[in-house]
Specification:
The chain is an all-alpha fold and 404 residues long. Among the domains are: 102 residues; 126 residues, no CATH class; 30 residues, no CATH class. 59% of the residues lie in helices and 0% in strands. The chain is built from 18 helices and no strands. Helix 4 runs parallel beside helix 6, helix 8 runs parallel beside helix 14 and helix 14 runs parallel beside helix 16.
């Protein structure tokens, strides 16, 4: 038998055995390797390695020198800075739209935005007052059902900038507040708000000065002029200043020789004091006229509130408050003019009559008041109720044959 040429050699190995052998050898090498060799091996690349780390203290020259490094932050601008000219232009545009009822809601919201942004200042308060004057151009618009809430919101915001207006403007604002705030509070369904509004009306009536004979005369003349204007007739009025000033012919008759011209140099010393006195007198006259207009507007606004309150006398929880309010107005009737006194007298007579009916147990319609039990008792007094409940409930005998 011939000798085997492969005798003494290891058996042939497959690819799988070679891979396992290489893994075994690498494992034994790592086991016997030193720690320095392991630390020198680079770590595997991860996704986090692509992110940029924060610079160390020594990397930034500003930080190494001890200087403060400003940090960049993202900030959003929440306000818009408008110039004085832009604010005034906005007020003028709102003024042209706010007097239109269909545009009042949107225009009033823009005006409130100007107030909340602090754009209304004493320097431009005259333009904003013109805006409010346009809103109150119609005396009855503020009490319209569709505009009450918007008027109330606008003039509630105006109270926060009351210090920006002059004394004369504050007086006019006070009359507008009565119509836009107090009068609209009388339409509420909240008894607390209603009572508070009635208390404001009582205080305002108590602060009115007594009406004089001149006030009655001016009112009568104003009513006569209004009636004349409605009828279409035109009356000629004579200017008192032109009639009081003498004509040229009258001057020549009083001074035919021109001696008054010779006395002018001697009277020049008193020209300046007389000018100051005349200016002070004119200012006093203007203030008195303005005060009269303010009191007149106050009386008209309070009378409007009394009429609005009287219309709600049908509501039970309003009746006691209206009784007290009307009695207070009647007790201070001398603070109103002649026509207003007549209106308050009629109003008090009507409320007093209804108050007497309430004491007698009658409602404002004249019928006797009754509670729920009495109302049900009267309702079922004439009803026909069957012992069979649902069968023949109205008393008819349709089911007798069916029942046998």
């Amino acid at each position: 038998m011939a000798d085997d040429i492969f005798d003494g050699l290891p058996p042939p190995s497959t690819s799988h055995d070679a891979t396992a052998e290489r893994h075994r050898l690498s494992t034994s090498e790592r086991r016997h390797s030193s720690p320095s060799t392991l630390s020198a091996a680079p770590p595997p690349a991860l996704k986090g390695a692509l992110k940029r780390d924060k610079p160390l203290l020594g990397d930034n020259p500003a930080e190494s020198s001890g200087e403060a490094v400003p940090q960049r932050r993202l900030r959003f601008k929440t306000t818009v800075d408008a110039t004085e000219a832009q604010v005034i232009e906005a007020m003028k545009k709102i003024t042209t739209h706010i007097q239109i009822p269909s545009k009042f809601s949107k225009a009033s919201k823009l005006a409130i935005q100007l107030i909340q942004a602090g754009s209304v200042k004493p320097e431009n308060s005259a333009h904003f007052f013109a805006l409010l004057n346009a809103a109150m151009s119609s005396p009855t618009a503020c009490n319209e059902p569709s505009l009450r809430a918007d008027y109330h919101t606008l003039f509630s915001a105006v109270q926060d900038i009351n210090q920006c207006f002059s004394k004369q403007q504050k007086n006019i604002l006070a009359t507008w507040m009565i119509r836009a705030l107090v009068a609209n509070d009388l339409y509420t369904d909240d008894s607390f708000v209603y009572s508070k509004a009635a208390g404001k009306i009582k205080d305002a009536i108590s602060n009115l000065p007594p009406a004089t004979a001149d006030d009655d005369t001016e009112e009568t003349e104003a009513l006569a002029k209004a009636e004349t204007a409605k009828s279409g007739s035109i009356t000629d009025t004579v200017d008192s200043t032109s009639s009081a000033s003498p004509s040229e012919s009258d001057k020549q008759a009083l001074d035919p020789f021109g001696l008054d011209a010779l006395l002018l140099p001697a009277g020049k010393k008193d020209e300046k004091p007389r000018g100051k006195e005349a200016a002070a007198l004119n200012k006093k006259v203007e203030e008195e006229a303005e005060y009269k207009r303010f009191i007149k507007a106050q009386r008209e606004g309070l009378l409007l509130c009394l009429e609005i309150a009287a219309r709600r006398y049908k509501i039970p929880w309003c009746q006691t408050t209206i009784d007290i309010l009307a009695k207070h107005a009647f007790d201070h009737i001398n603070r109103f003019t002649l026509r207003q006194r007549e209106a308050i007298g009629r109003l008090w007579s009507s409320i007093k009559e209804q108050h007497v009916r309430r004491k007698q147990g009658k409602s404002i319609t004249g019928k006797l008041d009754m509670n729920a039990f009495e109302w049900l008792q009267e309702k079922y007094a004439h009803e026909k109720i069957s012992i069979r409940h649902s069968v023949g409930g109205s008393g008819e005998r349709r089911a007798q044959q069916w029942l046998g």
